[in-house]
Each structure stands twice: as C-alpha cells, then as structure tokens.
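ok here's the first one, seq then struct tokens
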Amino acid sequence: MPDDGVLLDTSFFLRFLNEEDPLFAKADKYYQYFLQKEFRLFISTVSIAEYCVGGTIDQLPLKNLLIIPFNIEHAKKAGELGRILYDVRKSGDLIISERPIIINDAKLFAQAEVESNIKFFVTSDSRSQTLYEAINSKISINFSFIDIKTDHTEAFGILDL
C-alpha cells in the first residue's frame, strides 16, 4: 500500500485536532491506521484555506502530510464535476436543503480524481457523500468516499483484535 494515497478533508482535521470532539477517537484511529499501513496522507491547499478560517496552519500535522496545490488540471476537473452537480440539482435529482452546493467539495473531489495515487477521500462531512454519489451516478469516480462516522475496521474490512 505504500503508493496508495488518502486525501483528508477539512472536516477530518477539525475532528482530529480537537480532543473534545465526539469524532476525535475515530479520526485518530483512522490517522494511526493510515500511518501504520504506510498510506500517503494528502491535504489540499483548498482544505488548508478552509482550516485557516478558524485555525492556523501550524496546528496541522504537516510533517506527515503531502500538500497538493490546486492546479489547472484540478480546475478543469472541478469545473466538470461542478457542472454535473448543478445539472443534477437543477433536474431535481439532488436536493440539498441544508446548504448550497459547495464548490470546494467539487475542487477536493477533482483533486482526488486527478491524482491517480489517491484511492480514498476521508471526511466527517456526511452531507458531501450526497454530492459524491450524485457525481458517481453520472461518471465513474476513481476514488472511494469514507465517512469517519464508520469505524476504520468496517471501512477497510479488518478485524480489530
């Protein structure tokens, strides 16, 4: 698995870096599992910007993370994914009552899609799974979505002995 990568989104870090958060323990178990299995851990500059709204960059565990700058290939793919989301929402097949479509989700999904070694997108934002599924119903996505509300043992089919 040393070539397999994981894109960790902003909500993951909000849970992982707050020991008082109800999902802290799950985020920590995922993080430790990824390190133990030698997954390459990625963070997007998009997530760094989101995180820095309420925190500072020095709070992020950057020594264990590879930073993915948002580039032109990501931008082209984000436009494609954003168009799919807007079309699906316009058709009525995607109803998002709690929030508008967040273009940052499309940007992060685009990075996970373009970067071939990213196999998993890991988040605690369950609502973004709706967006992932809407996109995946229209085009084949090359990465899997993991919500940390699901135990890492279940997500990866392992026995936690």
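and now the second one, same deal
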Amino acid sequence: ALLNVQEDHTFTESVLFGFGSALGFTLVMLIFAGLRERLELSNVPEAFKGVPIGFVTAGLLSMAFMGFSGLVAN
C-alpha cells in the first residue's frame, strides 16, 4: 500500500500492482520449493544440510532476480 501511495498510482494501477506482486511471490515460492526438493535428494555436505544450504540457495536466487531489476524502465 505504501508503494502505491508513494508512486501516486490510480486504483487500477494499484490493483494490477497487487496482482503482479502476488504472482511474483508465488513464482519465487514455487522455484524455492523445487530447489529445496532437489537439494534433499542431492549429496550436500553435512555442514550445509538444512538451514545453511537454504540460506545459500536464497542468496543465489536473490542475486539471480537482481539481474532483472534493470529490465523494466521507470
């Protein structure tokens, strides 16, 4: 809601922004769930099993999505 107010979006733009945000969040959660399933089946060192490999995966996924930040013009 704060982003919509700061950017002075109309009602329609706000609704589309909400749907786009929800779609993006769902996409990221699906990708992360798939990666976690693959990591459970792969040979991960004992020190990285569980939460540590989750943090590493989240960091790499975050850097991958940061590459998309320059694709859309303001």
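notes on #2: Residues 3 and 9 are 9 Å apart (CA to CA). The chain has a mean pLDDT of 88.
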